[in-house]
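Worked example

This section walks through a single chain of length 682. The input is the sequence exactly as stored; nothing has been trimmed or padded.
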Amino acid sequence: MKQEHQARDKKQPGIDISSAKHKEEKHNHDENAAGHNHEHGGIFGQNTELIFAALSGVFLAVGFGLSFVHALPVLTSTILYGIGYFFGGFYTTKEAYQAISKGHFEIDFLMLVAAVGAGFLGQWAEGALLLFLFSFGHSLEHYAMGKATKSIAALADLAPKTAILRRDGKETELSIEELVLGDVIIVKPNSKISADGAVIKGESSVNQAPITGESIPVDKSPVADPDNYTDDKILKPENKVFAGTINGSQVLEVKVTKLAADSTLSRLVKLVNDTEAQKSPTQLFTDKLQKFYVPAVLLLVVTLLFAYLVIDEPFSKSFYRAMAVLVAASPCALAISTPSAVLSAIARAARGGVLIKGGGPLEELGALTAIAFDKTGTLTEGKPKLTGVVALAQLSENEVLEMAIAVEKLSDHPLAAAIVKGGLERLQQKNIPSAQNLEAVTGHGVKATVGGKKVVIGNRSLFKELATEVNEQVEKLEKEGNTTMLVELDGAIVGLVSLMDVPRKEAKNTLAELKELGIKKMIMLTGDNQQVADAIAKEIGITNAMGGLLPEQKVQAIQNLIKTEKKVAMIGDGVNDAPAMAKSTVGIAMGAAGSDVALETADIALMADRLDNLPFAIGLSRQSRRIIKQNLFISLGMVAILIPLTILGISGIGPAVVGHEGSTLVVVFNGLRLLVYQNNRK
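Given that input, the structure is written out below as tokens.
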């Protein structure tokens, strides 16, 4: 007892979200370089950078329009361009300064120098346009970043903060971090379980969907000898409970087998927390390019400033040539080439019921060769439904169903609710006889009297001996993925009812479309047993089903798949899917049915909870990848043409601005084509 109190005095670590917060605060455009923070605040909150960029565009447009009003002095437009400079260059200057202070030159700095040079030469409109386009694209690119803290916080919130501890006949409420191994906690009906442990008293059904993804609540019963078991790993599923799962209608007493920091839920937090964001291939390319490109351009411009020392020309001409080269080399089109396509694609996806969180997931989605699906709530509807009624004696199917409804109406078990709902729909709300004297047999079924006759409804384990015909019917239905409930009337089996978490209506056609799109492998990962997984897989066309998986096993399955297929998506809807989503190339969450954690952790969310939006999203992503490559070719190609022409004096600053801005407009409008993307398959 003394050691137990000492262990309690040393407060155990709980679920830590600090590292996630740190990651969000340190989210960098180039984490190994400038390290600047894109989660800008300001007078308009987190949207200040975007609003500043928009204001820059407004003042630029007004100034440009007023330049055609000859009654107004030229200074009017220049002042408006100057205000546009301020708003467009505010965060560009800030980020350029942060980069330079750490010894790095990025496109931010080069854009700023180009804009200042344009202004120095009197090209205020061109400079303001450069800053507007760059700042607007930059701000939008950063808009959807920083989901780590929310996802970790949502995971941590699953577990209750306190537990009711029983010791020496007294009940005390204390923090879950204060629990030690061997403590006995009380779990009240319809409340969350506070810790991983073994049931030592009480019987109840527990909703484990948040952790294991199982579609049907699992019946729990006490361990045979609560004082003498020593290994948590040898506990049977019916004796083990997880922190964060939801108790049913009965009180449970649970002996703690894992500290708060070691619970299954805590491991989920760690799995998500340890996953680092992946940059898109294009982002990696431009990051690498700008490290060499920006200093090279600056060196070239500085060299050209002193050309008058080598060739016979005035300094003003050398300065003009240098500024022309700087404008020609300014990578505005390069900077906007990816954001213009990405943001158009994201907007189009949103209109189609798909939320895509940034350019990385958008590009990666189009490169997928394999997709792993969670079963419950993703490929299936996530709720048990009545799938069949079999009459085994003189009664009709309707009479068996009426009897089952009468008894199950008195029960609060989820399967009972499914039988009642489905049965009433089949019978078209026909008057049902009433039942009395309900007696629950936890883990097995229920007993009651209907019309003075004893009725027992339950699973096979409730009945000692079953006829061969009955066993064959039960085995046939269970092989098809059904949960079966036998109906006994006055000691004789008169029928059975079957229930199943049925596939979504669109699942089969969606998988067929994905196969046509070139997805080589489609596998199912589920916490349900292998028999149920195989039955669902056969019905909808999944070629490989893996059942009985815990969250960490799903993560391992994803990692194994990545080794062979390279680009793998994980699509799910539960908390148990979050770590697998985080480890996959692209994490996809079902929208309406998805938990907050899955939605925050996922890179892509099917907002309308429609699985058939997935082929549309993949098609859009592939078109986006093509347009991004086109944009890069256009932007870099124009720079490759303009730089030699301006160095040789063939082109002055005017043609350079036209070519530069022309390529920028082409890139932007090319990206905007994605706004009208149509999925020919739908």
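What to look for: Residues 1-38, 144-152, 274-278 have pLDDT under 50 and may be disordered.
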